[in-house]
Amino acid sequence: YTDYIDTIRVPAFDSFGNPNVVHIFTSDRTDQRRGVPMLAPVILQLKQQERYQDAELMAAVISACFTAVLENNVPEEAEDIYGNVPESERVEKTDDKYTVDPWQGTRPALEMKPGAVWSLAQGQKISSLNPQRPNVNYQPFVESIFAEAAAACGVSFEVVLRKFNSSYNSVRAAILESRKTYERMRHDFVSDFCQPIYEKWLADAVVSGILEAPGFFENPVKRALWSSCRWVGNAAFLLDPKKETDAIKMQIDEQLIDRDTACAMINGGEYEVVARGHAKELSLRKELGIGEPGSVSKTENFSVSTDDTDESSLQ
To answer: What is the rounded average pLDDT of the residues 146-159?
Structure first.
């Protein structure tokens, strides 16, 4: 099998400086060559949690099969009255105090169903069984495991399980704290994967003549300007759209952000596309004679007096 494990060296960059391999990972220390999974610190705990979950589920399923316990109050001295007699030769025997059924051990199990009536042997009774399943401590224990995993990934526990049962401020703080990790991961993915592939595609398009970019290969500054772009991902989750929109509107009024950034924050779009859509919508409303959105068409109210009404006109 040595022929199948021979390796060859692939340069990271070609003779023109273009990357041959895009290796994406988060570097936590100097001269790190390989990435470390985010769940590496808690991978063993998650595996044990999976086994515990399977065991609890199986225990609950088995416990659901037990409905009652059949107790036998016949004393031991009555159970041994047959001695070494083979089971096929045994007959019902009665001593002074106890009557023993020779087929008692081979009777089928009692079936639990509505309105059932059972005939029990002498000395038998039915008692309830409490297997204590499902386990009441299962949910707190599992949530503690997931809380450790969420902390290792840099996100909040509420976001991982999508469990928003606390107050608005607490949930918002959890979402904002998780958003920091998402934005950092998005920035790393864009700079290490999306942007290099886009630049390579743009260079191939310019070389093949599909796109015209004067000075793309002659001037590095112009090439950087041609290759510059803005990557917009999914918009953040709005817990309360009204409050979030009012806060973004205040930031626009105070000139802290522009409308393009506001559109990206709310719906992940671009303001230019939204503005062109509004212009097209405004032109269509004028063409159809429709008023501005939110305006109420007022009509004059009139009343008919019964005194001035001609009876012939009503006929």
So the answer is: 88
Cα angle for residues 180, 198, 13 (degrees, 5° grid): 100
Query: What's the CA gap between 138 and 59, in Å, rounded?
Result: 12
| Separation CA 248–CA 173 (nearest Å) | 17
Tokens matching residue 203: 């260079």
For 57, other C-beta atoms within 10 Å of its C-beta total 13
8 Å CB contact between 252 and 266: no
Beta bridge pairs of residue 131: none
- Residue type, position 60, single letter: A
CA-CA distance, 202 to 227, in Å (whole number)? 7
Check if the beta carbon of residue 12 is closer than 8 Å to that of residue 19: yes
Q: What is the pLDDT of residues 189-228, one digit of tens each?
A: 999 899 999 999 999 999 999 999 999 999 999 999 999 9
Give me the DSSP letters along 233-270: -PPPP-SSHHHHHHHHHHHHHTTSS-HHHHHHHHTS--
pTM (2 decimals)?
A: 0.62
